[in-house]
Amino acid sequence: MIVRPKTRGFICVTAHPEGCAAHVQEWIDKTRTHGVVRGGPKRVLVVGASTGYGLASRVSAAFGCGADTLGVFFEKPSEPGTLGTAGWYNTAAFEKAARAAGLKAPSINGDAFSDGIKQRAVEAIRSGLGEIDLMVYSLASPRRTHPRTGVTHKSTLKPIGEAYTSKTVDTDKGTVGPVSIGPASEQEVADTVAVMGGEDWQMWVDALEAGGVLAEGFTTVAYSYIGPDLTWPIYRAGTIGKAKEDLERVARELAVRMAARGGRAFISVNKALVTQASSAIPVVPLYISLLYRVMKEQGLHEGCIEQMNRLLGRLYGEGPTPVDEFGRIRLDDWEMRADVQRAVAELWPQVGTDNLAALSDIGGYRAEFLRLFGFGLPGVDYEKDVDPHVMP
Ligand code: NAI
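^ thats the input. predicted complex w/ NAI below
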């Protein structure tokens, strides 16, 4: 089969098996070049491990720290004659590389919000991996079926209180235009918190603790975002921001609970990056296109893997992990630098369809988006027939 990108709005419905493998290999190579984190974790569970920040966390733990890893994710497997999703191919490539390096790398494909998958993870740790010293929580999902009530909550990306008007880019067409989003109802806020807030993270820690699979000094980390004034109404002050506030509340509770057993719990506030999840948020892709231009010009640009290599260095480096006044790790420190934000804020009112390519890194945005699905990787022959069915 010849596999080409097929984009529909902000998703790409095809994925290239060899391209995804090449992408994962790039991250492994970058991690090896970055160097080993001494004293890093040795047995790691990553929830949301197949793409974006979770996959980068898994690569960094395995190839930067020599850790055995258990990955949990929700992906469509490939079948004979039928493509799987990018996360499926990423995981197949990751597992092969990890095993070749002598590391254990089992995975569980299923709904992480369910009790059943949590129990399967506990059993996999008990019977194969051994007690875990790090759990990364990196889920991004549009819906969650609550394991107790059976209700399916859907998350929304809306402002709260009043409508929000700004501009956004259609990354497919390369056009910039106004966007107006009406305020969320109370139910929509509650549903978004139910999906992307902290309850499920806490349920994971509860299940792992009850299952007796947490090692001495166990650490857990979940990912959040804050961002600048430009995206404030749609992100931090919006429905997703309420969910992140809830995640941060749970982090504070878990930090107290874990400290009692010599462990730690953190929020890491990460940089805005092109991922499958972030491309769905209105306004944010235009902000990212400008941010990439500014950060690349200033030599400050990082992708998921550079961020996660920096995170593990902070978590396991010498001395206490540096945190802000609210106890959060700030990997968005370079993004939020005053000079970076000033430069983005200056470009924001000027950018339109005509000057999009000149003022922003829309080319870089698009290229990185396609790379998420295995397209545009050097050394991959995209004219060659590939077998879509790839098993780990
Ligand atoms: P992503 O879309 O690349 O990854 C999401 C992961 O969650 C995938 O592995 C997917 O398989 C898994 N997943 C989704 N639903 C699932 C389910 N029901 N059961 C099991 N696995 C499921 O997303 P990304 O961007 O890496 O986001 C991860 C976290 O990082 C999120 O909490 C996000 O808010 C946060 N973050 C993202 C930033 C960005 O700019 N992309 C910035 C700062 C934080």
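The radius of gyration is 20 Å.
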